[in-house]
Amino acid sequence: MATSSVDDYSLSRVPASARVSWFAIATQRLGQLSALSSFVVAATLGFSMPFWDAMLAITIGAVILEVVCIFTGVIGQREGLNTSLLSRWTGFGHAGSALIGLAIGVSLIGWFGIQSAVSASGLHAIMPWLPEWTWGLLFGFLITAIVSLGFHGMQWVANIAVPLFLILVGWAVITELQRHDIGELVTQPAPGPPLSLLAGASIIAGSFIVGALISPDMTRYNRSTADVVKQTVVSITVGEYLVGLSGVLLAHAVKTADVSAILLSSVGWVGVLVIVLGTFKINDWNLYSSGLGVVNFIDTVFGRRVNRAVVTIAIGLVGSVLAAFGILGYFTDFLIVLGVAFPPIVGIMIAEYFVVKNWRRDLDESREAGVLPARAPRWVPVSIGIWIVSALVGYFVTWGLGSLNAVITAFVLYVVLGKLGWIRGYGSAATEQAITAPRSADRALS
Fold this sequence. Notes:
mainly alpha; Hydantoin permease; two-stranded antiparallel ribbon; 20 helices; 72% helix; single chain
């Protein structure tokens, strides 16, 4: 199977000819961070924290995210591999990567459907001549069509949607804040029940931890390590502070954490466009990474290579239909619990790649030839145990940042047990190499 532009090297390395500028990827990352869900998080902090405490919590959370995203992003950039495929040689083995691919696929397609339903509600508010479920289908189908075109198709959309979103949200925020005294908003106590600084930072860091895990899906298109650092620092800093400042001030002004209500009551249909655009650029990445995870799962479990675009269309259609009829709303709690499983994966991948290096030589040698390592361990049982233990720590330990506790626990356990020689692969699985010769359609966007 030749790797085409729409397949996006789902089971192979991204060649140098397909890499893009750091600013292009920063635009896509900024789209992820300036989403409606980020506004909800910022408004939650603003409703329950004084302004400067909320901004300090955002700063702590942003720094944690930048560090974690840089490490995982550098791995993806160096190897040119997406997260699900990369996990075969970063601590989980061939079969373990199938579990990761399935978890990512199920989680992100769930959130894709739920956020499509949110946008459908907003569209129905200003265009009630179509029922809400119809808007849900149309919105989901539109994103599915764009994501099926691949990374470069998503890039063109980001170049339009992200600046438009920032302009509209800036206008909406200014319109609302003109009715209030900014100095009073900055100094007044939180309008809602108090939230500690530690809890606030935890909310910020935890809200994007899945984004840190799937960073390689994006950074495999970066040209250098320096590009990863620039793209990550700029996008996360601008995104978190822009959205954070706006969300906190709006919550203080209107004295509610319901951002949708704030925007709709302040600027009407423009607020709906903000909601739709704010969902759009994170939802396309939900579907994109979900598709990559499912492709890896099918390849690992069934030994069949399927085209990423075909998989994307299939799961996008299913997710859109389930969301339109409200079915996915019943699974929100399940998706939140499933999210606990992701932080330990980040810790294990970083520990294996940068410290323990059991399979680093295989990656280094094959990278020179532009192919995958010939073989991967079938199972790494100790890693699965570390994964489970660390997830439980993140979920049940109430002190500190839950997601960060899980990442650190997984990292420390993996390094200690790895240095003791306990991290071993059992069995071996051959890797079928995809054809990676670049075509004219794969030319990088500058």
